[in-house]
Amino acid sequence: MTDFDPAAATTQWLATLSPQETARAVAYTQGSHWLILWAFLVSALVAWIIVRTDVLVMIRSRMERRRRRPLAVSFVVALVYSVMSWVLTLPWSIYESWWREKQYGLTSQALGGWLGEAAIGAAISVVVTSLLLVAIYALIRRARRFWWAWASGVTAAFIVIGLVISPLVIEPIFNTYTPAPNGPVRDAVVALAKETGTPSDKIFIYDGSKQSDRYTANVSGLFGSARVAMSDTMFKKGADLAEVRGVVGHEMGHYAHSHVLWMVAILVGLTALAFWLTDRLYPLGRRLLGADRVGDIADPAGLPVLALILAFLGVLGTPVFATMTRTIEEDADHFSLVHANEPDGLSKALVKTAEYRAPSPSAVEEFLFYDHPSVENRVRRAMEWKKAHPQTGKPAI
After folding, report:
1. Rounded (to 5) percent helix, strand, coil in the chain
2. Model confidence at 186: pLDDT above 90
3. What's residue 214's pLDDT?
4. pTM more than 0.85
5. Residue 218, SS3?
6. Which tens digits make up the pLDDT trace of 145-183?
7. CB 249 within 8 A of CB 336
8. CA-CA distance, 90 to 118, in Å (whole number)?
9. What sign has the CA pseudo-torsion 22, 24, 26, 32?
10. What span, in angstroms and rounded, lies between the C-alpha atoms of 105 and 333?
């Protein structure tokens, strides 16, 4: 295919988006970048409010006077903090996760439905977070000097357990997952699964349109619970077999290359660094919040200080997390091209994701904020693959 120009083909694919669609995608994406800063400021305000109420200090002091065990004190304080934080953050969460999505046409879910699911998710999160914090505070007390190293390992264990049980216990609470029905789509997916060594009984379709109108698919779970799931939004937006093969091939790449395990391994190191920095920054954070009645880092009443420092480090680490996931996504794209060999199908699917991810950011913007390669770069690589691997009978754009 010597006369095929990948750059021209990429431009042609991007031109399938109208100027209005591109402008809306740019506005949504750049607004999302600002949300990182605003979310941190909301976290700071919430931490300040909780510290000023002295609720956590009073609970801790009362339980200590009654000679409650440190584990019980940590659990109750963490539970109260988590609930207070969720309630105080709720107006922001409604704006960020529902109202803004509604304004940009990315969800048709009613506010009542969103609130119901948010409350269920919060209940699960509050319990799990409280248990994790109990373990972390126990480590701070017992392994004071190197608690951050042990705590990163415990956090990793919680993540792994969560990944294993999520498809089995958590995800079915919010969505219905069914095996791909018999027909051309299932036949194509099963054939691709056999080629890539992915269990063919791990391919599901779920009613994702209930929450979001985004064109998406994902891999969830770990070890025996891992599965590939396609949102029904894909098919409501007219995904053809080439698209399905391209998208599922990408998700199978995550499965086959154990990307989740790689991410967990990297997160262990990053979490250890974050906890180490938190240990050093805690006195400064306590002074800035005016938490005079809060003790040192072993005091569970200092949770707002701990959370604020971690939130600040999270903002600083945005490019690190973005680069980590972007690299993995690029590898999954390559896996799809090698095994599904659907550069046009993958490109068609990628252009549909541009509604919530501006297709052509600057190199700096992509590096700082994009957890996936830009649509333009991904389509360009697919077109370069197409030029290097001519396909017989495959349609052009």
Report:
1. 75, 5, 20
2. no
3. 85
4. yes
5. strand
6. 899 999 999 999 999 999 899 989 999 999 999 887 788
7. yes
8. 9
9. negative
10. 27
With contact defined as beta carbons under 8 Å apart, do 248 and 230 qualify? Answer: yes
Residues 324/253/355/378 CA torsion (nearest 10 deg): 70
| Closest CA relative to residue 14, chosen from 320, 6, 283 | 6
pLDDT average, residue stretch 330-350: 94
3-state DSSP call for residue 167? helix
Q: Which of the four pLDDT bands, split at 50, 70 and 90, describes residue 2? A: low
Cβ 311 vs Cβ 40: under 8 Å: yes
Q: Distance between CA 335 and CA 357 in Å, rounded?
A: 22
Q: How far apart are CA 19 and CA 74, in angstroms?
A: 54
The phi, psi pair for 319, rounded to 5°, reads -65, -30
Q: Tell how strand 203-206 and strand 217-220 pair up.
A: unpaired
Residues 126 and 128: their CA atoms lie apart, in Å, by 6
Confidence of residue 314 (pLDDT cuts 50, 70, 90): very high
The DSSP-derived string for 6-17 is HHHHHHHHHTTS
- Tell me the per-residue pLDDT of 349-375, one tens digit each, with 9 for 90 and over: 999 988 888 999 999 999 999 999 999
Phi-psi region of 226 (alpha: psi -120 to 50; beta: other; left: phi over 0): beta
3-class DSSP state of 229: strand
Other Cβ atoms less than 10 A from the Cβ of 146: the count is 12
What single-letter amino acid sits at 342?
E
pLDDT band at 229 (very low <50, low <70, confident <90, very high): confident
> Based on the number of CB atoms within 10 Å of its own CB, is 241 exposed (0-12), middle (13-18) or buried (19 or more)?
middle
Handedness of CA 332, 380, 373, 186 (dihedral sign): negative
Q: Is the pLDDT of residue 235 over 90?
A: no
Q: Which among 10, 188, 210, 205 has a CA at the least distance from the CA of 109?
A: 210
Residue 391 banded pLDDT, cuts 50, 70, 90: low
The residue behind tokens 């969560």 is: 162
CA distance 101 to 109: 10
For position 392, what pLDDT does the model report? 44
Amino acid at 18: S
CA–CA separation, 288 and 302 (whole Å): 13
